[in-house]
């Protein structure tokens, strides 16, 4: 991988013959619409993109290697910092991997708490992602602020439950850290009940907006075939019409108990990706309504799991969840000691970025931002 | 009609703008330094050390077992164990931390130290206005800076503190009963008369 100092030459050096009309532009890393420190080397023929090279690694912080020196529990707060918008789903994926590795059972109530927190995470991630997407396309402020207003209510719920708004560090191997405080369930119910109204408003604001349609329909088309071959997961894959949702495929946790549908896109363009997230939020609200209704009383932790000196037996395990961005997986190898021998993260943001060039070729340079915004990346997870 | 979608969206923004004058659900921000939202009880920020009684040095619950230092993921805690034992709040001689430093510029507020502490000695604070222009000294907190009374803990996390107090009282009662039983057994076995068993209880107080 090239670094920032190393010049990446996508196009040959200009000669005196005036034949070379391409312009090489470095977009990012400090660009407001790159969602963090992400750079794209773009070769332009006029307004059209003829080549694009994503450059990442600016936020690399050695997450996987650090995890090999930490205890199993010690890596849990670091997983918050992978995808800092959705720390609870990252927690869950890691907890799932360790539970598979050590063969730990999770009590009923904890499973419900996990589903509730994960779906709330999905709501706030998708809402703010759409805000960011619109912001990238020039709708400065308004959509993002409306999304953040709703997100704030969900973050307040997270704070009341886990103690932190974003770095929740909530799941534990064999359950959750704390039970919900008094009145939390009613508060959550209120937020969930009010959410469809916000979605209606949001749709009113955008879905039929002519400018949005002109900017996004037919832009950044990703074919289902390419998406499958490139290992794309999550809303991006489903927007291309491939029916693959790990909540349905793996049925991890207790997802088989809930009635919800998986929305699918038709064209695989930016508009489909936007619309799919809108529909997915409505499905999440359905799951939340069922989970909040059915949550049973009981313990929230497997009493046999130790907090300190946790040593799973030697072996390997891969735990994956449908995080709001795609398939988030943790691959762990244990050698029987208190820290993992190998710890590998399969980040959806990184894998979903790999087809960026394929989507951007032939598009206008202004569309690159819309396409990147629709991929839904968080650099904390891409670079790790 | 072309432009209908845009007009619909503008009507939505207008509704939000006008609604912000009448309803609290559309105007959710507060003027921060003057106005403050109520603190959420479960909130956590940085750790502090709990002490019982009026004197922070004597009452500190920490017995310098070094577990938090070892379990802290970013290794921001450094403790030096004392050589001697000093009586704690209950009068029992205990080790104490000669040095207890937390580098809050490294701490990531994960509260694993709280979870692993067997003595309920370290808890999470809710104070968040901590910015300082002294990057090194100002963010390395020593044990005097970290010490907070149990009353303070009860104030910021009432539910959690009540549970902790109950749990500690239960432990103490159990210990007392045990020592009492041991003393009684001893006294009956050696057939020594009454004065003896009371002393064990008195020492506990």
Q: What's the SSE blueprint?
A:
The complex is a heterodimer of chains A (384) and B (205).
Chain A: E1 23-27, E2 39-45, E3 48-55, H1 63-69, H2 76-80, H3 87-102, H4 108-136, H5 142-162, E4 171-172, E5 175-176, H6 184-206, H7 210-216, H8 224-229, H9 235-239, H10 246-249, H11 270-294, E6 315-323, E7 326-334, E8 342-346, H12 348-353, H13 356-360, H14 365-375, H15 379-383
Antiparallel strand pairs in A: 1-2, 2-3, 4-5, 6-7, 7-8
Helix pairs in contact in A: 3-4, 4-5, 4-11, 4-14, 5-6, 6-11
Chain B: H1 4-22, E1 47-51, H2 56-59, H3 67-71, E2 77-81, E3 86-87, E4 93-94, E5 97-103, H4 112-116, E6 122-124, E7 140-141, H5 143-146, E8 147-149, H6 150-156, H7 158-189, H8 195-204
Order of helices and strands of chain A: EEEHHHHHEEHHHHHHEEEHHHH
Helix count from the secondary structure assignment of chain B: 8
Give the N-terminus to C-terminus distance of chain B in angstroms.
Answer: 84 Å
Low-confidence stretches of chain B: 195-205
Q: Decide which structural class fits the backbone of chain B.
A: alpha+beta
CATH architecture of the domain at 47-163 in chain B: 2-Layer Sandwich
Number of domains of chain A: 1
CATH superfamily of chain A: Cytochrome-c3 Hydrogenase, chain B
What is the CATH class of chain A? Mainly Alpha
Order of helices and strands of chain B: HEHHEEEEHEEHEHHH
The proportion of strand residues of chain B reads 5-15%
Query: Can you identify the CATH class of the domain at 47-163 in chain B?
Result: Alpha Beta
Please name the CATH architecture of chain A. Orthogonal Bundle
Are there runs of chain A of 5+ residues with pLDDT below 50, and where?
Answer: 1-6
- From the N-terminal CA to the C-terminal CA of chain A, the straight-line distance is 15 Å
- Main sheet of chain B? 3 strands, mixed
Based on secondary structure, the structural category of chain A is alpha+beta
Please tell me the overall pLDDT of chain B. 82
Largest sheet of chain A: 3 strands, antiparallel
CATH fold title of chain A: Cytochrome-c3 Hydrogenase, chain B
């Amino acid at each position: 991988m090239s670094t920032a100092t190393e010049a990446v030459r996508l196009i040959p050096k200009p000669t005196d013959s005036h034949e070379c009309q391409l312009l090489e532009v470095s977009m990012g890393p400090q660009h407001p619409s790159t969602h963090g420190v992400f750079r794209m080397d773009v070769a332009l023929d006029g307004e059209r993109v003829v080549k694009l090279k994503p450059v990442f690694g600016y936020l690399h912080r050695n997450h996987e290697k650090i995890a090999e020196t930490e205890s199993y529990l010690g890596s849990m707060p670091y997983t918050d910092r992978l995808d800092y918008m959705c720390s609870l789903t990252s927690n869950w994926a890691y907890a799932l991997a360790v539970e598979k590795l050590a063969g730990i059972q999770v009590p009923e109530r904890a499973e419900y708490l996990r589903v509730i927190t994960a779906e709330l995470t999905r709501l706030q991630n998708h809402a703010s992602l759409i805000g960011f997407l619109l912001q990238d396309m020039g709708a400065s402020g308004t959509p993002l602020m409306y999304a953040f207003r709703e997100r704030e209510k969900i973050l307040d719920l997270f704070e009341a439950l886990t103690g932190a708004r974003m770095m929740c560090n909530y799941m534990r191997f064999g359950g959750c850290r704390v039970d919900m405080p008094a009145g939390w369930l009613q508060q959550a119910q209120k937020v969930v009940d009010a959410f469809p109204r916000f979605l209606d408003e949001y749709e009113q604001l955008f879905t039929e907006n002519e400018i949005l349609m002109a900017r996004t329909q037919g832009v950044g088309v990703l074919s289902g075939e390419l998406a499958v071959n490139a290992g794309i997961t999550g809303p991006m894959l489903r927007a291309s019409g491939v029916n693959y949702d790990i909540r349905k495929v793996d049925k991890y946790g207790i997802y088989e108990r809930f009635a919800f549908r998986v929305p699918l896109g038709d064209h695989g363009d930016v508009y489909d990706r936007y619309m799919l997230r809108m529909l997915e939020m409505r499905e999440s609200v359905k799951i939340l309504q069922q989970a909040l209704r059915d949550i049973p009383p009981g313990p929230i932790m497997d009493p046999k799991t130790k907090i300190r000196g946790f040593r799973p037996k030697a072996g390997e395990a891969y735990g994956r969840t449908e995080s709001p961005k795609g398939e988030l997986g943790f691959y762990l190898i244990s050698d029987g000691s208190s820290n993992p021998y190998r710890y590998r993260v399969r980040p959806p943001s990184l894998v979903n970025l790999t087809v960026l060039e394929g989507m951007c070729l032939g598009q206008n340079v202004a569309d690159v931002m819309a396409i990147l915004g629709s991929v839904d990346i968080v650099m904390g997870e891409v670079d790790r | 009609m072309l432009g209908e979608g845009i007009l619909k969206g503008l009507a939505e923004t207008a509704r939000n703008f006008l609604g912000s004058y009448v309803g609290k659900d559309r105007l959710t921000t507060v003027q921060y330094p003057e106005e403050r939202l109520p603190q959420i009880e479960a909130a956590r920020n940085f750790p502090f050390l709990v002490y019982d009684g009026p004197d922070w040095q004597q009452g500190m619950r920490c017995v310098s077992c070094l577990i938090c230092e070892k379990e802290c993921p970013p290794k921001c805690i450094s403790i030096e164990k004392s050589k001697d034992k000093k009586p704690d709040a209950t009068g029992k001689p205990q080790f104490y931390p000669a040095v207890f430093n937390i580098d809050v510029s490294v701490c990531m507020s994960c509260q694993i130290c709280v979870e692993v502490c067997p003595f309920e000695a370290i808890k999470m604070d809710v104070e968040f206005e901590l910015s300082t222009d002294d990057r090194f000294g100002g963010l390395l907190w020593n044990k005097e800076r970290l010490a907070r009374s149990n009353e303070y803990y009860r104030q910021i996390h009432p539910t959690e503190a009540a549970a902790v107090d109950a749990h500690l009282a239960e432990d103490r009662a159990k210990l007392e009963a045990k020592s009492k039983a041991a003393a009684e057994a001893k006294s009956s076995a050696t057939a020594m008369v009454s004065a003896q068993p009371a002393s064990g209880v008195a020492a506990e107080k």
